[in-house]
Amino acid sequence: MKKMSPKRVHLYSLLILAAGAALGAIGALSEIKLLAILGITLLIGDIVFRIACYRCSYCGRYLDRSRGEYCPYCGKELNY
Ligand SMILES: [Zn+2]
User: N or C terminus of the chain: which is more exposed, having fewer CB within 10 Å?
Assistant: First the structure.
């Protein structure tokens, strides 16, 4: 499997987060449990996805909240 760039992972992560939050909120407000559960599942999945994939492609360390152009650990450029 081809590795995704950290920027792409961050973008997908935000999209999944937004979708999960929206589904969860709609499910909670309309009391449709299935939607709420789906939303929560997406939120949890997003965290797992982020931890698994939001990593430096050079040293492999988790980038956490780092949004810079360079890896804070090895100093390599992340934008590729
Ligand atoms: Zn690195």
Answer: N
